[in-house]
# Entry
Amino acid sequence: MKILIISVICVIVVILVLGLTLMTISKGYGYKHKVDPLPAGKEDDQNSRSNRDS
# Structure
């Protein structure tokens, strides 16, 4: 009887951890990353460097 109670508790814990894991992964994929734009002048410097390398 003890083994049955322990098994049920273990299954409940595993299901809870799995559910929280899937929820966290889903929330992470839904996060919108923001990228700051380059300051004025930096973009021109990069273009001129790539033209010199060619």
Remarks:
- The helical segments are 2-29, 42-53.
